[in-house]
Write a structure and sequence with these properties.
Strand order of the largest sheet: 3-2-1-4-5-7-6
Order of helices and strands: HEHEHEHEHEHHEHHE
CATH topology: Rossmann fold
CATH architecture: 3-Layer(aba) Sandwich
CATH superfamily: Vaccinia Virus protein VP39
Strand content: 15-25%
Radius of gyration: 16 Å
Structural class: alpha/beta
Length: about 200
């Protein structure tokens, strides 16, 4: 496990959990969790290449757009839902999070931080930022709802989501005590474990 985000997520998920991964990509996270935490995992993905990779790795995957597909799983009662680097791509991220926390006990969310100092500097210089957590150019990105760490934490307060754990990552996507000191300015990405009240 050399991916810091995967390491954080793995630490937060208990053995034998039922996990749904929204925007699972190639299923590598679910494969890691299955092999090391013995979870029962399901992936939701829209990209055909990602779906094919999931199937090659024996990951159960459903082809769905997250914006349209969350309601179908509302009666499934998962232990943990994962939305890594996907929340900012949704039409209504606040409503999606409510729905996700209705179908799972907890939700792990990762968000790129638009308040990161390199993003602020790029905007000051008249450019859309490109960072490790925002790697696409403005015309190639799927991101439609970017936010800062502060914006996301304010949303959690407004919606009564409990932030049980959080980690703030630097540009190398590693946990950083400096980023934790001033996350809205110095964190490139945030990783959150949420629960409902």
């Amino acid at each position: 496990m050399n991916n810091p985000i995967t390491n954080i997520i793995t630490k937060w998920i208990e053995d034998n959990s039922r996990v749904i991964d929204f925007g699972c990509g190639d299923g590598s996270l679910l494969t890691e969790l299955r092999d090391n935490k013995h979870i029962l995992g399901y992936g939701i993905e829209i990209d055909p290449d990602g779906i094919n990779e999931c199937l090659k790795n024996n990951i159960s995957v459903v082809e769905k757009d997250i914006d349209d597909g969350i309601d179908e799983f509302v009666n499934c009662n998962f232990d943990v839902a994962v939305m890594a680097s996907s929340i900012q791509c949704l039409k209504e991220p606040n409503i999606a999070l409510k729905k996700i926390l209705n179908l799972s006990n907890k939700c792990i969310v990762t968000i790129p931080n638009l308040g990161y100092w390199r993003c602020r500097l790029a905007l000051l210089l008249g450019r859309m930022p490109v960072t490790p957590s925002l790697p696409s150019s403005w015309y190639g990105t799927e991101n439609i709802h970017l936010c800062t760490i502060k914006d996301f934490e304010d949303l959690c307060k407004e919606e009564d989501f409990i932030i049980e754990e959080n980690m703030h990552l630097n540009k190398k996507r590693q946990v950083s005590s400096l980023a934790k000191l001033m996350p809205n300015l110095l964190s490139c990405e945030g990783v959150y474990l949420l629960a409902r009240k």
